[in-house]
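Following up on my earlier message about PBG. Here are the inputs again, as you asked, copied directly from the submission form:
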Amino acid sequence: MTGGAGAGGTSRGFARGRRLRSTPALRRLTAQTRLAPADLVLPVFVKEGIDEPQPISSMPGVVQHTTESLRKAAHEAAEAGIGGLILFGIPSEKDAVGSQADAADGIVNVALQQLRADLGDELVLMADLCLCEYTDHGHCGLITPAKGGVRGQGGAVVVDNDPTLDRYAAVAIAQAQAGAHVIAPSGMMDGQVAAIRRALDGAAFQETPILAYAAKYASGFYGPFREAAEGAPQFGDRSTYQMDPPNADEALREVAQDLAEGADAVMVKPALPYLDIVARVADAVDVPVSAYQVSGEYAMLEAAAANGWVDRQRAVLETLTAIRRAGAGTVLTYWAVEAARWLR
Ligand code: PBG
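Thanks, got it. Here's what our run produced:
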C-alpha cells in the first residue's frame, strides 16, 4: 500500500506498525495465530506394577502413572478441555519381540480400556504404536544378526524392517480393540502405515484413523523420554531408522509416502528445532498436521525456568504459539493441561 495515513501508510515516510500493538485488546484482535486448549494433546506414561506415581527426574512435574492415577489425570485433562491424550505403556516384563505391546492384558491396553470406559469419546485417546518400551533390547523393531556386508547397529545386528511390520499390525489391532480412537505409529519402519491400515481394515476397524509420525528425526531431544518410558536402546542408536537431522526434503517424501499408504494425519517430531519442517509439511499437505514438543524441549525450558532464567509461563506459551504459527494444527506437549488452564 502506498501513501496516506492507511495501515502501512504515513505522511512522514515511514509505516506505523505500532498502531495495532498499542493495547492488549488490539493485539488480541489482530493476532494471526490462536492457541486453544483443544489444540493440545498430553503424552502420558502408565507403568505396570507400581502403587504410587513415580516422578521422572529429568522431567519435573511429569510422572509414570499407575492405572488409577492415570484415570484421575485423564479426568483433569478432560476438564481442562484439551484435545486428547497419547498413551505410552511400560510393562514389567520385556522380551525380544515386545509381547506386552499387543497382549490384551498388557499395561497400555488395560489403561486404554479403562480410559475409554471412563471417558467414552470425551477425549481423543491416541495409542503410540512402537516396540521400544516393550522390547528388552530397547529398539523400535525386531532385531536380527546382520547379514554379510551389512553393517548394523552395534556392528552385529540390524533392526529388521519387514518382520517388524507384522508385529506393528498385531499391536494396532490390540490397541484398537482396547479402545484407542487413533493409532499413532512412531517406529519409523518403511511400510508401517500400509501394514497397519491393512491390519485395521481386516479386523473391522476401517473407521480407526492413523496419525503417522511421518517425519520423526533421530534426535538428542528424546533423552528424558527414555527415562520416562524406560526404552533406551541397549546398544547402538536409532539412526538407521529415524531421520537424519540435516535432511529436509526427505521429510516431504516420508509424509507423501505415509499419506499414499493411508495415513489420515501426519506428525513432525521434535517440534521447536524443526519448525522449518513443520512449515514445509503444512504447506505441502491438506491433512491435519501435528507437531510433538518432545521431552528434551520440555526439560530444557523447565531447567531454565527453575533457575529463574526465563519466565516459565510466558516462554511455554511462546513455544506453543510458535509451533502453531509454523503450521501445526495440533501440538503434543507435556504442558498440555497446564497451558489449557492458562488459556481459559
Ligand atoms: C518411541 C517414541 C519416542 C518418543 C515418542 N515415541 C522415543 C524415541 O524414538 O526414542 C519421544 C518422545 C519424547 O521425547 O518426548 N518410538
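One observation from looking it over: The chain is about 35% helix and 15% strand. Hope that helps, and feel free to reply on this thread.
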